[in-house]
Amino acid sequence: MSDYFNLLDEWGPEKIVVVSDPDIGMQGVLVIDNTARGIGKGGTRMTPTVDVPEIARLARVMTWKWAAVDLFYGGAKAGIRFDPTSVDKERVLRSFVRKLRNEVPEEYVFGLDMGLTEVDAAIINDELGRGAAVGTPYELGGIPYDQLGVTGHGVAEVVDEIADQQNLQGSSVAVQGFGAVGHSVAKRLHELGYRVTAVSSVKGALANPDGLDIPALLQERAELGDDFVYNHPKLAIEPGQELFTQADIVVPAALQNVISTANVGDIKAKLVVEAANLPTDAGAQAALREKGVTVVPDFIANAGGVVSAAFAMEARFSPFRVDPTIILETVSTKLRANAITTLEQAQRSGETTHEAARRLAQERVRAAMDLRGRRVLQPSAV
Ligand SMILES: NC(=O)c1ccc[n+]([C@@H]2O[C@H](COP(=O)([O-])OP(=O)(O)OC[C@H]3O[C@@H](n4cnc5c(N)ncnc54)[C@H](O)[C@@H]3O)[C@@H](O)[C@H]2O)c1
Question: Among residues 295, 294, 298, 304, which one has the least CA distance to residue 332?
Fold first, then answer.
């Protein structure tokens, strides 16, 4: 058996609750990492391989995410070790959440992550009562994040804010990926007057230095999904090259690790705004800083979903639907401000923007712990 004490450091976790029901094969864990800034909030995942260290690591990521966007929730995550395609899913889910009755919703609120759907969020609320989970279906008052395109909208607003600062407003943009996030980035940037010169899907990449017809591509994507690229053989470029065109701004919105030390020299853009999670590695981030390319880190630029989750938390006990316009406006205001703060901090400290954003988040958590009288012990003193 692993020694869970190895997971503890000066930040947390404050609580690890491991539960099981051997009769039905349910095993699960809730990790509440750090609640100095608010109650624990982070998704709930169900996979056959979930383990305690994985959930603890993800809970810690949430601690920094909430602090980085300056929203008052703490880091937490839950995991159920079970096959989400099994016919017994509901029984296992109900059993898992029942065992966490003492923690939910005062210390933790369930949310969606791998293996859980909106219907599961509804089941959790049915089992534990209103307010135990967010991410419920629209019919039950939930917020349709993907339909609203909140994450992509936020990324595009960040592009616009930093482009304004760097005299790149209305310039050319390449977007990798045209899924839930990528297509809404392209849509919003087009609305804001940018020239989207390259886009891609897993099926291929398209480029036109004069600007692509984004409304037409959005329509084709709605009809054909990723295959929309096949409609434009004359605009096709080598897959992957959309990141390295002459566009002034690049938005990776598909995969992780696409910009590394191996190819960072080929980047011609002046601004990289990370919509995907982890699209650059630390070596590439340092190299981009050296080259004078501004990078807005993933957890700053793609935090639209986190901001929406905060709205969903607020809405749990309200009879009114949240107005989507208010969500989009708040995402815009918050993410624009966070991006500016991160860049200023990096400028002052000489760090990469990733390092600066991480440190800012840590300083905010540390300040909250200090103010609550929770002394942060240095690792050597633990
Ligand atoms: N959905 C969200 O709200 C959200 C929030 C934060 C971060 N993210 C991150 O954004 C990224 C994209 O997520 P999504 O929800 O849009 O996923 P998605 O599955 O809806 O879309 C992925 C897109 O990437 C394309 N793609 C896949 N492989 C590619 C390749 N080799 N080259 C070019 N395009 C390729 C797919 O064709 C598709 O268009 C992921 O890193 C995800 O973790 C998503």
Answer: 304
